[in-house]
Specification:
The chain is of the alpha+beta class. It is built from two helices and six strands; from the N terminus they run E-E-E-E-E-H-E-H. The protein has helices at 89-93, 102-118, and strands spanning 27-32, 37-45, 51-62, 65-76, 81-86, 98-99. A six-stranded mixed sheet has the order 5-1-2-3-4-6. The longest helix is centred in the last third of the chain and has 17 residues, at 102-118. It is elongated. The N and C termini lie far apart (65 Å).
Length: 126
């Protein structure tokens, strides 16, 4: 396979945060260092990789289901970002995950936690 080695003198190479210029006005997914996932349209960024997102949603997943909780316009500090990637709309719509409401996701999580409590081993120390 052909592999391109980028050098600083290449016309299309943008170092650091400047590489985000290609994702402006695109729908992106951000994974934060605390584990949360944000989905929104990238509108602006700076040299510290602080990002401004519009139509932002926090995406929560559970097994093969997910829900999006609306947050509106959102400013994300660059030091809290672990991963940034562009979302392929076709793959998102035809993916394996099923979109459900936030209340349905909460009910699934409650049922799972109840089941894990029932299946918990009991210890007898006498």
């Amino acid at each position: 396979p052909f592999q391109k080695n980028y050098r600083m003198d290449d016309d299309h190479y943008l170092p650091g945060a400047a590489s985000l210029v290609e994702q402006l006005d695109c729908r992106i997914l951000i994974i934060l260092r605390d584990g949360r996932n944000l989905v929104g349209f990238l509108r602006s960024f700076d040299q510290y990789m602080n990002l401004v997102l519009e139509e932002t949603h926090e995406r929560e997943t559970f097994e093969d289901k997910y829900c999006d909780i609306s947050l509106g316009t959102f400013l994300v500090r660059g030091d809290s970002i672990a991963v940034v990637g562009e979302i392929d709309v076709e793959k998102e719509e035809n993916g394996k995950l099923q979109k459900i409401s936030p209340s349905s996701l909460a009910q699934l999580k409650i049922k799972q936690s109840e089941n894990s409590l029932k299946n918990k081993d009991e210890w007898d120390f006498e």
